Structure formats: C-alpha cells, structure tokens
Fold this sequence. Notes:
It is a single chain. By secondary structure, the chain is of the alpha/beta class. It is about 45% helix and about 15% strand. The protein contains nine helices and eight strands. A six-stranded parallel beta sheet has the order 5-4-1-6-7-8, sandwiched between helices. A two-stranded antiparallel sheet has the order 2-3. The longest helix is centred in the middle third of the chain and has 17 residues, at about 65-80.
Amino acid sequence: xxxxxxxxGTLIDSAPDLCHAANRMLQELYGxxxxxxxxxxxxxxxxxxxxxxxxxxxxxxxxxxxEEFARALETFKRFYGExxxxxxxxxxxxxxxxxxxxxxxxxxxxxxNKSEDLAWMALKGLGxxxxxxxxxxxxxxxxxxxxxxxxxxxxxxxxxxxxxxFYVGDSETDEEAAKAAGYPLLLYTEGYRKKPVEExxxxxxxxxxxxxxxxxxxxx
Length: 220
C-alpha cells in the first residue's frame, strides 16, 4: 500500500520549536513578549505564512506591509531552520509503526504545508527521514492542502499506481484534503484538531501509533 502522512500534529508535536522560532522573531523585530506554546499550537495549520499571520495578530500587529511580512517570514524561517528539532516530540509509537510498515513493504510519503526544506530538516534531525520515499511541502507546488494536488503528487512520487492510497492526518485541513483527493482518511486523534473526533469524516481513527499497522491491515 501507499501511505501519505501529515507531519505537524500527526507524526510530531512541532509546536514547541515553531513557537520558539516565532517568539525569537517577535522579540527581534518588535520587542514583543512571548506566545505561550499552548496558544501557538492553535495557530498550526496551512503553513508557516498562516502561522506568522496569527502570531503577528496575537502580538497586536494587524496589517503589516508586504515588505514587513516578508521580512518577518524570512526571520521566522531562519530561526526555525536553526533549531527544527530541538524541542519537537515524536508522538508515541510513531517510530515503531513506521519501521513495521516499511518492513512490510509499504511505500510512505509526507505531505505537509511546511516548506519542503524545513520539513526534511526536521525529519533528518529526528532521525526519521529514511522511512519516507517522498515529501511534498507547502511550497513544492503552486497550491497547498487542503487542495488535493499535494496528496496526488505524493501518490505519483510513490509510484505503484495499482496500490491503494491511505492518508494519515490529524486536523480539519487533512480531512478536507483527503476528501478532495478521494483518499481514505485515518485520523490520529491526539494531534491539533479543533472539532470533536466524531464529527470527522474518517475511514478510521486511532489514538496511538501502535494501533495503525493493525488498522491498515483490516482495511487493505
């Protein structure tokens, strides 16, 4: 089978490193106080530009010019690139599940709204890059999730066109993307979702990655 995984909130809790980078940016450019990591976690989704927009709004900066926004985004990305995996937590059971799935012959990719270079940096920093055969990031294509094309591009890069595709995600954006792409969504319930689990249109749900291989075996 072909498996496509969301990154932030699904495989990893990256909120601490992203929040740290945002706070360094706010302090350096604006002298602004820090955003609590619990608050920043609610900003995650739809890529770094959207996280930056929410961070600036939190700091009281409502309408930055294009030039100011670009400078803030470059600073945010630079700080995150310096420490993409220092505080990030791999969710319980992820490594073991990925190793088991790879050993069973699954082809796996990551589809994230994070920039492709930063996503690879985080995965390499966590020692997880070798599990994946492909990665599509937020700037790889002209569109990003919830548009279906990033998921379709992941599937194409994995090849094996006759194999079924499953998408593993944690959020409303993932739900929209999976539905638009026509791929079954397997919902990780411990990520960054905002609405109740029972309101998701998911083919299956799981709260620990140790459950994922068995869930996939039932569906294959």
